[in-house]
Amino acid sequence: MSLKSVNDILDVLKQQAKWQQHPFQRLLELWPDIVGTVAAKHTRPLSIQRDVLQVATSSAAWAQNMTFGRTTLLLKLNQKLSAPLVDIRFSTKDWQPRPDYLQPQTVIPQEHPSYLGNINPSQSQVKPTIQSANTAFEIWAKKMQARSQGLPLCPQCQAPTPPGELQRWQVCCVCANKQF
After folding, report:
1. Which of 94, 105, 128, 164 can bridge 113 by disulfide, Cβ–Cβ 3.0-4.6 Å?
2. Domains contained in the chain, CATH given
3. Which of 98, 114, 108 is nearest to 165 (CA)?
């Protein structure tokens, strides 16, 4: 009786058909290299049915663009895959954004030109009970006056403006928007 090592047994199992990588798995790994990183973000292989690759695209324009280059893609894919493909079909039908596109972009408040920082850190953050709209407006107006003291004025409208806005646009954001 001869004993074989675990590595020898695993090598034999990997060579058997059921342990080999499925062609679609291989295609998913190759896809960004074959089509390019930009196209890979707007396309997603869905399945292989009867030797035809079904690919979802983010827009009709991407579907049309990819369809024009499908013969080149077929040649590249068939060189790398064990089972050759007959055709590729592009459609927007089953497109769903990837979860990584749905991740909110982190915006650091301190980097925004309108950021003023913590104006009055000594004031408590307790919200007063508001009896009427006039009272609410008076409270808001007092906060805005306190916040705007010491701020430079916009050269066009003379409104108190955060220094970051003046540095970026030379005017306040309202006047900058009017220019566009």
Report:
1. 164
2. 17-96 (3.30.300.180), 145-180 (no CATH)
3. 114
User: Tokens 């007959």 identify what position?
Assistant: 86
Strand partners, 44: 56
Per residue in 121-157, pLDDT (tens digit) is 555 455 666 678 888 888 888 887 777 777 888 888 8
* Lateral strand order in the sheet of 43-49: 43-49, 52-57, 87-91
Picking from 35, 26, 34, 82, the residue whose alpha carbon sits closest to that of residue 57 is 35
What's the CA gap between 34 and 21, in Å, rounded? 18
User: Measured between alpha carbons, how far is 23 from 77 in angstroms, rounded to an integer?
Assistant: 10
For 49-81, write each residue's pLDDT tens digit. 999 999 999 999 999 999 999 999 999 999 988
Whole-structure pTM over 0.85, yes or no?
no
